[in-house]
Amino acid sequence: MDFDLTKEQEMIRKEVRNFAQSEIAPVAQELDEKETFSLELTRKMGEIGLFGMFVSEKYDGQGMDYLAYIIAVEEIARIDGSQAATIAAGNSLGIGPLYYFGTEEQKQKYLPKLCRGEALWGFGLTEPTAGSDAGGSKTTAVRDGNEWVLNGSKIFITNAACEMTLGVTVQAITGTRPNGKPEYSCFIVEQGTKGFKANPMHKKMMWRASNTAELYFDDVRIPEKNILGKPGDGFHQMLKTLDGGRLSIGAMGLGGAQGAYELALKYAKKREQFGQPISKFQAVAFKLADSAMEIECARNLLYKACCLRSQNRPFEIYAAMAKLYCSELMGRVADRAVQIHGGYGLMKEYDVERFYRDQKLLDIGEGTSEVQRIVISRHIGC
């Protein structure tokens, strides 16, 4: 067992941490307050190679292992959940399906722009009545000659309605299987296609500086060549994508927990009560000690899952464990951090308040905590 990172992975951590502290930290609070998606920051993240990190250089990717990518997400989340969401969704959910399931023509057409950070791509799975129940989708695609006609809607789709959005991958019902269950297929829908509308969503509690969209499909005609993989493979494609996406959410939880912990530790060393820093009181010191311990546990679990994935070994149960543990860990650490800050932790001028809000989506997105426990329990034979 080797717990040391490679020189490349260490370099990624150092460079991304420096970028996050110098470029994101100064504007994160303002972007959150104004609910502004930053094209400038997103393009800068593309320029330093944060999109397409695990994609082959053939498509202008970085050709790195999955752990290097996860470390990058972790370091961005250490400063701001919104920008981490842009990176995580842009890679795992946007680029991932095209890279793993697309034809060579589709890869050549879309991946280079996405990997260079010149454009973004959405992942259209969740619907108003189908979240955790991905099999409850109602969006349909009906074949008409050499085209498919798409009707329906999606909701809570990241990176799908901004100036940089190039298109979305959409799951739709394309028929009925022999067992009577719906057949699902995935389609590539380019921005600007007639009948396709993407509306930004506002008034969010968390990730206020990320782009979230509602998607509407009204007799959208999709050419045959824009189906992703084979008809009927959609549900399998989506589940495989979510397995990798869980690692990204885990990285956001780990990075967010690290950031909240560091804010709390710094504050506790400065804040004095009864003639000494509050970090000297056991009630505070033990909260920080518990946080440090749990963060170390989370990092080892998440990195193990990433290493298994990179080695093409079964990792699904560890992805679910890492997503669940890291997500809920950030909740515990952010709660302690706010408590340590006292009344100041409830004020928007203190970053810890934003960490507290941003955490909640991690319990919900890409499979709720309840769903992760179902996945884990099935893997252990329950």
Structure description:
- The chain has helices at residues 7-34, 39-47, 66-77, 81-101, 104-115, 234-270, 282-310, 316-341, 351-358, 369-379; strands spanning 120-124, 140-144, 147-158, 165-176, 182-190, 196-200, 212-223, 227-228, 272-273, 276-277.
- It is an alpha+beta fold.
- The strands form three sheets. A four-stranded mixed beta sheet has the order 1-4-5-8. A four-stranded antiparallel beta sheet has the order 2-3-7-6, with helices on one face. Strands 9-10 form a two-stranded antiparallel ribbon.
- β4 and β5 (182-190) form a beta hairpin.
- α8 (316-341) runs antiparallel to α9 and α8 (316-341) packs antiparallel against α10.
- It is globular and about 80 Å long.
- The model has no long low-confidence stretch (mean pLDDT 96).
Give a brief description:
It is built from ten helices and ten strands. By secondary structure, the protein is α+β, with helices and mostly antiparallel strands.
